[in-house]
Design a protein that fits this description.
Helix content is about 35%, strand content about 30%. By secondary structure, it is of the alpha/beta class. The protein folds into two domains: about 200 residues, P-loop containing nucleotide triphosphate hydrolases (Rossmann fold, 3-Layer(aba) Sandwich); about 80 residues, 2-Layer Sandwich (Alpha-Beta Plaits). The strands form three sheets. It has a six-stranded mixed sheet, with helices on both faces. It has a five-stranded mixed sheet with strand order 13-10-12-11-14, with helices on both faces. A three-stranded antiparallel sheet has the order 2-1-4, with helices on one face. α4 packs antiparallel against α5. The protein starts with a strand and ends with a strand.
């Protein structure tokens, strides 16, 4: 099956600032991707280019095998729900849903109405009178009910409480299972969505740091704790991303190709070994305690 999206050496510059730097990757059909990274990393710029709302400085982009710009056949198959989604102020909630139904051929009206009830949205309320959370819920409803073959959610949950966010995650997973499509989630609430994400794209300072299956990544980044000398010995064959010292003990986050033999070696050294959370992995790969470049080893002493 051909990729839904192919990006090759994509670069975007704004007056001397490089927002994207030779980024290359592809998105397969019927997968949930996590597009992760810090504020200003280039995530939104990337999604804007893929949805024909921005232009690349150089590089190639193909969506469903074609360039998306001014391509109705491509754009009608894309849904892009942005962090600051806006609607004409004279519209009511029901009008927004009606307009979305006209634009997206895969619209499911019954599903949309169910989501309206789930999020407790008043259908006849004017959008300018909606709270921040209600506006986010409206965007989520549009993004899910379109069932677009390629759907982007860029920080879609602003203002949503924990219950509403869980409703979003539950409905997304249930509907994706019944109606598979390619979904890209860009979010800072990584722990909340880690069980949904099947593939991780991590961007930092415009560069792609990770393009990896989530399950594979979980086995690559580990947290090891124990006597300093033993941690040193175990970490020698891996890349150390972060370390905390407490007296004669250390707790380190390391990345490498680990297998059953490494589990046994850790036990023989008297070390505790556990998989690093996806959020911790992203933090360790994009920050360091002393401000080094992304991915550099970070060490800090706790006194």
């Amino acid at each position: 099956m051909s990729p839904v999206v192919t990006v090759t050496d994509l670069t975007k510059r704004y007056r001397g600032v490089t927002a994207l730097d030779r980024v290359s990757f592809s998105l397969a059909g019927n997968r949930i991707y996590g597009l992760l990274g810090r504020n200003g990393a280039g995530k939104t710029t990337l999604m804007q280019i893929l949805t024909a709302q921005n232009f690349a400085t150089s590089g190639e982009v193909a969506v469903f095998g074609q360039h998306p710009y001014e391509n109705e056949g491509v754009l009608s198959r894309i849904s892009f729900i942005k962090e600051s989604q806006t609607y004409p102020s004279n519209l009511q909630v029901r009008h927004v849903l009606r307009a979305a139904a006209l634009v997206h051929p895969g619209w499911d009206e019954a599903f949309a109405q169910q989501l309206v009830e789930d999020f407790r949205l008043p259908p006849r309320r004017n959008v300018r009178k909606l709270s921040r959370g209600m506006l986010s819920a409206l965007g989520i409803i549009v993004g899910l009910a379109t069932r677009a073959p390629l759907t982007f959610f860029d920080e879609p949950y602003l203002g949503l409480d924990a219950v509403a966010r869980q409703v979003f995650y539950d409905r997304l997973l249930a509907d994706y299972t019944e109606h598979p499509r390619t979904i890209v989630l860009s979010t800072h609430l990584i722990d909340e969505v880690s069980d949904l994400i099947e593939h991780v794209l991590l961007i930092d300072a415009g560069r792609l740091l990770l393009d990896e299956e989530a399950e594979v990544l979980r086995g690559q980044v580990l947290t090891v704790a124990g006597p300093v000398a033993a941690v040193d010995e175990f970490s020698r064959s891996a890349t150390e991303l972060h370390r905390v010292l407490l007296g004669g003990t250390a707790r380190a986050t390391v990345r490498g190709d680990f297998g059953p033999a490494d589990q046994e070696r850790a036990r023989s050294l008297g070390l505790a070994l556990e998989a690093s959370s996806l959020q911790d992995t992203v933090v360790r790969l994009t920050t360091s305690a002393d401000g080094q470049a992304a991915g550099a080893t970070s060490k800090e002493a706790v006194r």
